Amino acid sequence: MPQLADAAPQGPKSRFPGDMIMRMSRERIELLRHMATTYGDISEIHLGKQRIVLLTNPEDIRDVLVTNQRLFRKGQALERAKVLIGEGLLTSEGEHHLKQRRLVQPAFHRARIAAYAGAMTGAAIKRQLEWRDGMRLDANRAMMMITLDIVAATLFGADVGAESTEIGSALDDVFEAFTIGYGPLTPLLDLIPTPKKRRFTAGKKRVDATIDRIIAERRTSGADTGDLLSMLLHATDTEGDGTGMSDQQLRDEAITLFIAGHETTANALSWTWLLLARSPDAERAQHEEVDRVVGDRLPTMDDLPQLPMTRAIVAESMRLYPPAYIVGRRSTEAYGIGDFKFPARTLFLAPQFIVHRDPRWWPDAERFLPERWLDAAATAARPKMAYFPFGAGTRICVGEQFAWMEAMLVLATLARRWRIRVDGPDPDLEPIITLRPKDGLSARLEKRP
User: Fold this and answer.
1) Domain for residue 1, yes or no?
2) For residue 191, what pLDDT band results from cuts at 50, 70 and 90?
3) Which backbone phi and psi does 295 adopt, to 5 degrees?
């Protein structure tokens, strides 16, 4: 198609000054859904001088995230996230990002993560010992506690229970106080010492102090305890300058991995329990599969290939409720896509939440149908970027296989003994850094016969 420099895609217009900023802050999912359904595959809004372009066609998304990824940098949301996670893999750019990825990648080789399976099932068993038939609980909080135990054991080792609880508590404060601002005044608003800002600052100091103390103790001991932090401490860039990570780099990667292994997987599991509670046929199929393959023992990594329905349930949950619900990239130069050409510094958004529910790629798109993932032909025929819960390109999540194993093993372990019932309405969405169920997930435990 010709690229027309004087053409611009359509999109909703501001009804009053600051309208779009408010809608992006308070009604983000609703606004994105409206843009996609009303204005097509390429639409845009303006926040002051900032152009924000929404892409919902898999081919256009592939162009930005994969084919021409060198022409883009991280979007504004992750730029803001640097105040929490520094220059970790999630936020860093250029050569620094490439070096950090080379240093971190070996920690997630298959042989390495296989050793963490026991920590994953052990954390699920530990928490369910507190459960009773008919007990009411916040299922999101319960999943957060399980994944907190897992990330503490796999990242820091088994001897930091108190510290991991402190980090988890501080991160709760940080997430509750964190907002993603897209407006031109966002940097100025960050300077105002609001109560929310003070909670964020206090929580961040607690996280930093705890992780810095753990790193200092490990530097002094020099021991390799088999956890991810040991791998990072002893890693050297053999393809580059041969150096390892500074204490600041270790801190940035540790907090990045802590959030990725704790927050995102807990939310994925929470949405999964909600969907299973609404889908008795899928729940029954998963129980039959787990009973047949696992029985009374704990599941292992070797069982995962024999649990296709369990994997399909997790995949379908992340289709409907992707924890990473949107990806942003800012162009470093003028960039043409479709019939349009956009100037440098245009912000492009690729929303998993919207694309994963597009009926062009997903028949019965709004329904929870895990069996769709058991149809290999349908999966192969679907555009590759119609499903990208872990991102794409060189910035695809380095811990993807870790996350799959964690979600499947926790789900299989708990499903051996428990059903989680959600009696009330579905929770509202809370799209912050990840897609959370707003105000948690009120549920009732039901012990399986």
Assistant:
1) no
2) low
3) 65, -135
Neighbours of 96 (CB within 10 A): 12
Q: What is the pTM of this model?
A: 0.89
Considering only CA atoms, give the Rg of the chain: 22
Could you tell me if residue 10 is inside a domain? no
CA angle 205, 207, 213 (to 5 degrees): 100
Query: Residue 375, SS3?
Result: coil
Nearest alpha-carbon partner for 268 in 384, 150, 181: 150
Asked if residues 331 and 305 have their Cβ atoms less than 8 Å apart, the reply is no
CA–CA dist 58, 41 (Å, integer): 9
Give the tens place of pLDDT for each residue, 87-137.
766 667 777 778 888 888 877 777 778 888 999 999 999 989 999 999 999
CATH number of domain containing 395: 1.10.630.10
Residue range 205-250, pLDDT digits in tens: 887 887 888 888 888 877 777 788 888 888 887 777 778 788 888 8
User: Has residue 188 been placed in a domain?
Assistant: yes
By three-state DSSP, how is residue 239 classified? Answer: coil
Give the tokens for residue 185: 């005044």
Q: Among candidates 410, 376, 406, 371, which has minimal Cα distance to 290?
A: 410
Overall number of domains in the chain = 1
Decide if 253 contacts 247 (C-beta within 8 A).
Answer: no
**Under the phi-then-psi rule, with left for phi > 0, alpha for psi from -120 to 50, and beta for the rest, what region is 107?**
alpha
Alpha-carbon torsion (30, 35, 38, 42), positive or negative:
negative
pLDDT digit string, tens, across residues 27-50: 999 999 999 999 999 999 998 888
